[in-house]
Amino acid sequence: ADESSGYESESAGGERAGSAAAGGSRGRQRRARTAFTSEQVCRLEKTFQRQKYLGATERRKLAAALQLSEIQIKTWFQNRRMKLKRQI
Question: What is the annotated localization of this protein (predicted)?
């Protein structure tokens, strides 16, 4: 039942993807893409509709409630703001 939101984010466990970064076989590897569940995306979207920017406290609470890292929440909101900007 996991669904991808289309947003790239850091993985919760800090795991790295097996493929090498574009530009050769040597170099930094990209983190695995986070597959957010539909419930997580729904909650994130509802929160985004109320407020476009989260403070540290709100981010911490939301991360705990959704069982995601604060970095994943921060990245999701950054990407969502950019999506909104492109739509406008």
Answer: Nucleus
